[in-house]
Amino acid sequence: MKYVDEYRDQKLAEKLAGEIRRAATKPWAIMEVCGGQTHSIVKYGIDYLLPNEVELVHGPGCPVCVTPLEMIDRAHAIARRSDVIFCSFGDMLRVPGSNGDLFQAKASGADVRIVYSPLDCLRIALANPQKKVVFFAVGFETTAPANAMAVWQAKSQGIGNFSMLVSHALVPPAITGILESPDNRVQAFLGPGHVCAVMGYREYEPIAARFHTPVVITGFEPLDLLEGILLAVRQLEQGRAQVENQYARAVEPGGNQSAREMIRQVFEVCDRGWRGIGSIPGSGYCLREAFRDYDSERVFEVDTIHAPEPEACISGSILKGLKKPHDCPAFGRECTPLNPLGATMVSAEGACAAYFNYGRQLVRLPAMEGAS
Amino acid sequence: MCLAIPGKIVELEEEGSMRMGRIDYGGITRQACLAYIPDPQIGDYVMVHVGFAISKVDAEEAARTYRYLAEMNQLEEIAAPETPPEAMP
Amino acid sequence: MPNAFALSCGLPVSRPRNIVLGHGSGGRLTAQLVRDLFLPAFDNPALRKLDDQAVLPVDSGRIALTTDSFVVTPLFFPGGDIGRLAVNGTVNDLAMSGARPLFLTAAFILEEGLPIGDLERITQSMAKAASEAGVSIVTGDTKVVNHGSADKLFITTAGVGVVPDGISISASNARPGDAVIVSGTIGDHGMAVWATREGLEFEGHIESDTAPLNRLVHAMTRAGDVHVLRDPTRGGLGTSLCEIASSSSVGVELDARAVPVREEVRAACEILGMDPLFVANEGKLVAMVAESSADAVLAAMRSLPEGRGACRIGRVVAEHSGAVIVKTEIGGSRVIDVPFAEQLPRIC
Fold first, then answer.
1. Of B6, B49, B77, which is closest to A3 when you measure between CB atoms?
2. What pTM does this model have?
3. pLDDT digits (tens, 9 = 90+) for A67-98
4. Please, which of A359, B8, B34, C217 could form a disulfide with B21 given CB 3.0 to 4.6 Å?
5. Tell me, what CATH number does B11's domain have?
6. Fold adopted by A65-165+283-299
7. CA of C270, closest CA in chain B: separation in Å?
């Protein structure tokens, strides 16, 4: 596959790892923001190629993980209605709310469907005029243009039986929240490549300046991540704090103008809660008033249920990069992907789930034989 | 959310008012919405996320960075003692 | 005197187009189904007797017995259908012990309203698959449930085979030093099924790889010392390797670059965010073979169409007992573990 295979070249990976080893003279803690980046790091064993000095801290870039429990309960309540066809990306299906997950709702008779694109929901709505079709719109800014288009098309085509349950999260406020925390240890960020393909990276410049923290916008393939880490280490070693674009083949400084314009037309910035972290002001999108007829929260009256997170869960600390999954006494024991206690285990992209699924609770991997 | 895959535009279509395209991912093709790509051409590569192209792949940029990596590959090793990386952090 | 309560309708029973509850009642409609549909398709001496059981001759040796249920949706997918899957799946379960598969049973649970044309297609498909594999379907059963109580059609099979003397193949027999061999590309069946699910369609040549493997196994056991055989169906190759590592208390080292995946399957997995290692196969096997025999076994496999893609993908080791460690495409390492549930497409 073009533009994929080249970035999985072993020899070049080894060279990059060698360059990182040469560049790092002091310990550095670097956070990769995106869940997809975490996934790639663990899947390819990238952190095993790094020198001791470079520590990768897994960030909160898993929108599934950080969706508040109240929102998940709201989704489940809507899904269980007999007049609803509930559509969702696969990622959300196994996330447990206070009373089971969407699969269990399906087993009790709810019409729950996996979709690949929000546009699929419009087709389902047109084909099922007697039902209300609801799309669970969870994601970071990357998914916002697609979700915006779905709502915009629904309005312009008058698809009255479609609505969206919106739970969008924004990355810059999350990064700011992490850096503002008094016990923050993150010294540089690998910025979210696909979020920035949409939004551009200008909004990271004030953050880099204010906190004197390098932000390297990074892709998702192994060579992207290794190059991003190398650029971050060099900045740290040289005392620089700039926004740098490793992922230039897909990211422009201003992002995608037409996508941003559609987002602006359909959504507005609002406060939202992050599971495991709490409320972060100005960190979410909600539908604008003009689209209120397509907002599931308006269409359906649903009581919210408040349920406290289990005490054993340290997701908050993990999402902020303060602790690792192994630091949690419940990891791999009471808390597993089958029985997740909190945010970072509920989805495959969460740090705890990624570590678990890639077997890190099982075995210490043997020391690398020296990459180059 | 993060999963976006590069693919080549092999056909341009319209669906209602939306510009759509058929994208080839190396053996399989799938429809994607091209509304967010200004002036898409057959042969362009785009990054596709949940059925929407969110950016074009800049072939020159890709070639430039890849050349840099490949050149680095040809640099001679600096003869310095190398400590092997540790196992689990 | 005719029983006044023995009601019977004077109209002749015409051939219905869909399955009705009566087809499962054991009465005339059932008999009609067996006579007109199952018997002509599966025809063999034992079945023709239409006894409640089939009485069959077997050579001396150990009997291999297996059972399986097939509930796949959709019923028809590129490269096959539920019937073909049922026959090949049962044949393969037997073959993985080194047994020669001989006889199959087929029990059908039909949903009221199922088009009989579909049942006919599936039955013909089963007959063809049985003939290809060299087995007979010798007895069966038919039940019909109310509309909504079953997803169109479920098939449950049992299979009987004979294991020749001297063969001892089991998931617990892997030994350090063994070569790990796979018979061809992985992930084909699972992605063929995902490709036909609503909302996830894509065009491309992805077909289920459903196929009988008994001939391949026979060639392998004659060529060398085979310790373990497994057909990685649901859960994929990765799950099978983990199960074998655990059963045998050995470690397995897998070379990610050596695992064969068709280009189209890889692209489909990339789009859906799925890992081919955990996608279902229906016509492939993974084997652990004494290293000294490995080249001979590979040559024997490659001489057959169903084994032409056979290759080494790793080895069995004494270290990290029970764990499967993958050397990744870039030279890193990761441990793989049995997934908790079926892999789903992801967008993150």
1. B6
2. 0.89
3. 888 899 999 999 999 999 999 998 888 888 88
4. B34
5. 2.30.30.140
6. Rossmann fold (3.40.50)
7. 7
